[in-house]
Specification:
By secondary structure, the chain is α+β, with helices and mostly antiparallel strands. The chain has 3 domains: 40 residues, no CATH class; 76 residues, no CATH class; 116 residues, FAD/NAD-linked reductase, C-terminal dimerisation domain (Enolase-like, domain 1). It has a 5-stranded antiparallel sheet, with helices on one face. It has a 3-stranded antiparallel sheet with strand order 1-2-3, with no helix packed on it. The longest helix is centred in the middle third of the chain and has 19 residues. It is flat and about 60 Å long. The mean pLDDT is 93.
Length: 246
């Protein structure tokens, strides 16, 4: 990702079906099959009365892990969904709403909040296990850390890759199936901390990966999670075998 240059020209070579050549402001020329221009996101918080509580209309609403807005005293204002900028996904907003609802109910009953890691009043998944899918063909699905993020944050992980197309279940799903799977295993704790899949239908693999990460299932226990044959879920067993054999 480059933030220091801009696109100054883009044209398709040939009669509407050739590659696209993109000229950047620094003179570099890139080629691609397609180009997507994305404008980014801004919060729709202009006309909801933020100025009446000392906040600036149009701003993001920063929260702590209980989804309580930190800039407003009294612990009475909450923000869930994209407006808090924690994890900009519909499913993550629903998750945050469940956590915030539990927080509000606990405070209404005068109970002490349980805000430990993975506790009912902590939106932990926003930080450690955000699942996301790019619904292209093929699909790309990921949750938790990527190898680049692990390296950037100094996490010591094992990276295990497998060719999904080698699975009997993948051939059943689609002849000529092509896809890849990757998991990251924390060397110290011996649990899965990240998973990425690319291939047709891999979005359906994402929930099992999310459960493995949030439950911190020991790798040795995953050996006993038997995938049905022939399904693409067998990739979990093949990943574990690949790690063992390497």
């Amino acid at each position: 990702v480059r933030f220091d240059v801009s696109v100054v020209a883009a044209r398709r070579v040939g009669n509407g079906a050739g590659e696209i050549r993109v000229t950047l402001s620094d003179g570099e020329v890139l080629t691609a099959d397609e180009i997507l221009f994305a404008t980014g996101r801004t919060p729709r918080s202009q006309d909801i009365g933020l100025d009446t509580v000392g906040l600036r209309p149009g701003d993001w609403l920063a929260t702590d892990d209980s989804l309580t807005v930190t800039a407003v005293p009294g612990n009475w204002l909450y923000a869930v969904g994209d407006v808090n900028r924690r994890a900009l996904f519909t499913h993550q907003g629903k998750y945050q709403a469940r956590v915030a609802g539990a927080v509000i109910a606990a405070r209404a009953r005068g109970e002490r909040l349980d805000t430990g890691r993975w506790a009912p009043h902590n939106s932990t998944a926003d930080i450690e296990a955000v699942p996301g899918v790019v619904f292209t063909d093929p699909e790309i699905a990921s949750v938790g850390l990527t190898a680049r993020e692990a390296e950037r944050t100094g996490r010591d992980v094992e990276v295990v890759d497998y060719d999904i197309g080698r699975l009997a279940g993948a051939v059943q799903y689609r002849p000529g199936y092509r896809g890849r799977a990757r998991i990251l295993i924390d060397r110290d704790r011996q649990v899965v901390v990240g998973a990425t899949f690319a291939g047709p239908g891999v979005a359906e693999l994402l929930y099992s990966a999310t459960v493995a990460i949030t439950a911190e299932v020991p790798v040795e226990r995953l050996w006993h999670a038997v995938p049905a044959f022939p399904t693409i879920s067998e990739v979990w067993l093949r990943l574990l075998e690949t790690r063992r054999d390497s």
